[in-house]
TrEMBL record:
TM region(s), chain numbering: none
UniProt keyword list: Lipoprotein, Signal
UniProt keyword annotation of Lipoprotein present: yes
A GO molecular function held by the record: FMN binding
Gene3D superfamilies: 3.90.1010.20
Protein name: Lipoprotein
Amino acid sequence: MKFKSVSAVASVVAISALVLAGCGSSSSSSSSSSSSKKSASSSSAKTTKVAKLTAGGKMKAGTYKLEEQNYSYGYRTTMSITVNSKGKITKSSYDQVNKKGKSKVDDTSYNKQMKKGSGTNPKAYIPKLNKSLTSTAATGNVGSIDVVTGATESSKTFQNYTQQLVQAAQAGDTATIKINNGKKMKDGTYNLAEKNYSHGYKVTFGITVKNGKITKSDYNQVNKNGKSKTNDASYNKQMKKIAKTDPKTYQPALNKSLVKSSDPTKVDVVTGATESSNTFVLYAEQLQNAAQNGNTKKITVDNLIFAE
């Protein structure tokens, strides 16, 4: 997701570069997720460099909205993005509000307590996350959105909701996205698949829910012939050598972790496969949202591919 597409037949040098890049910092998409992602290095964050889009549908001009239906600890998330005629996000209005419409940013007591316990608070992380969407992530590059230390859950939620808004913007669908947060998932099978290949592979992902729990998770990366990356012996060997893990190892681990917890936020990042782990969590959250609504329609992600 994170890179521009190349032939599935690559040299050892090309595979090495891909593997090393894949081990770097990433959001949630990933490859956020994502839309397809490119991790932002600290230097790129400082210069607010916007990665060039090489594949995937450009966002259409308009305002796109999302809102949670239920309150958690007295607050719920509301969010909107504004996209200009060049396909760039010019405004982001992510917030957490109470039943009176008051922002958590203005909750002095909450901010003071959270700052003391985690080193950050809504007054700090909400503006920071919004700013990311008008800088490094302006073209929908969800993978460039860093998790704010001390606000991991809110950051991952932000990445998930951004991904869904980007998908709406690509389709030009201005209907408000309604998230039935906190609700029990409805039984059924929920599927998601990326549209575009990156380095010869794209993500397919399905979950099965029974009695409100995820009983099966089938996250995979497949080529144009439907062959799983877990069966790409050359790729697995080279990645194992460099990153100490490979698709044959991390894909089953991620699937097992989701089934065990039934909660995407509790899935641990696999060391050496940060990008794929973040993509897994990003899409797992979107599938969870679909299951909360009981919407079994297959989700097709016109994933964005960005130049390295």
